[in-house]
Amino acid sequence: MPKFIHVAAAVICNENGDILIARRPATVDQGGLWEFPGGKLAPYETARQALARELNEEIGIQVTSASPLIAINHQYPEYNVLLDVWRVHSFDGEAYGREGQAVRWVKPEDLKKYSFPEANHSILKAISIPDYYVITGAAENEEEWLLKLTRALNAGAELVQMRVPSLDKNEFLSRAKKALALTSESGAKLILNSAADLLGQIDADGIHLSSERLSHYSQRPIPRDKLLSCACHNLAQLEQAIALQADLITLSPVQATDSHPGVEPMGWQRFKELIEQVPVPVYALGGMGREDIRKAKGLGGQGVAGIGAFWQQVSRSGK
Ligand SMILES: Nc1nc2c([nH]c(=O)n2[C@@H]2O[C@H](COP(=O)(O)OP(=O)(O)OP(=O)(O)O)[C@@H](O)[C@H]2O)c(=O)[nH]1
Ligand SMILES: [Mg+2]
């Protein structure tokens, strides 16, 4: 049996939104690579306790507020690691390399310039996406749909799933091009709810596979630098999404929702149990509002997804 280690690590943000990374000494395992500060749990310690101790020992700060970000199981040749990654929202003290290691505050978009251990791939993906995932909803026609999208972007949407099941492939592609112009201009990411091969015709940020489509693929259908979003409703689909190397997942229905009347919601407790071992950011979907973001994150989710508040009814005159 390979050795197993349980590690708590921290994504620490300062008031500018920069993130702290540290360089592992050349002489240790994974030496020379950058990492998120943290370390192994001592016996009888919870991950949260280990986080507080390690951050004090390694970078001299005292954590005052943190919530789980993602848990990653990863197999290295010599050992298996469970990385319990937390987001640290506030702390006391000034961070410095207390063990002599280099530390650096980095803009989230610059993290890709640094080399991290292999297991960190999912952490970097989780940091690059927001806590609210907007799914486009109903509109009378294309003009109104684009107006609603513009409003959602103006209201701060950063990740948008284009879902318009009524359009055929050509209509969808033509509208997606207009949507991409709008999302690119506002710095948001556009994910297309369509078959994966559409990315060959438009340079959107990723593809969302419905749970039905998800079952038809046996390997990841899009390149690694694009976002693969998957819809899941149960454990088997979560496993399938992980096998396809999904970058984000929507898990639904967490609460009762008007769009799927009569479908039994799983509830928050089941949501938590299902995502505990999922090494991919998971958004709660189904009856969600912005007020649920905190709850979802507190349970280890990435945030919430929905049509909801971002896709308000607007009249054609724009009022
Ligand atoms: N802290 C941290 N560990 C990581 C990251 N990514 C990653 O794969 N790991 C793995 O988790 C292990 C954590 O070990 P560590 O060296 O930080 O443990 P530690 O602070 O308790 O050090 P010690 O063994 O000297 O007491 C590393 O060997 C590495 O394999 C990361 O971003 N941060
Ligand atoms: Mg450490």
From TrEMBL:
CDD domains: NUDIX_MutT_NudA_like, TMP_TenI. Its EC number is 3.6.1.55. Pfam families: NUDIX_4 (PF14815), TMP-TENI (PF02581). Mg(2+) binds at G38, E58. The keyword Chloroplast does not apply. Keywords: DNA damage, DNA repair, DNA replication, Hydrolase, Magnesium, Metal-binding, Mutator protein. PROSITE patterns: NUDIX, NUDIX_BOX. It comes from the Bacteria. Residues 2-131 form the Nudix hydrolase domain. It catalyses: 8-oxo-dGTP + H2O = 8-oxo-dGMP + diphosphate + H(+); 8-oxo-GTP + H2O = 8-oxo-GMP + diphosphate + H(+). GO terms for biological process: DNA repair; DNA replication; thiamine biosynthetic process. 8-oxo-dGTP binds at R24, E35, F36, P37, G38, N120. GO terms for molecular function: 8-oxo-7,8-dihydrodeoxyguanosine triphosphate pyrophosphatase activity; 8-oxo-7,8-dihydroguanosine triphosphate pyrophosphatase activity; 8-oxo-dGDP phosphatase activity; 8-oxo-GDP phosphatase activity; metal ion binding. Belongs to the Nudix hydrolase family. This is 8-oxo-dGTP diphosphatase.
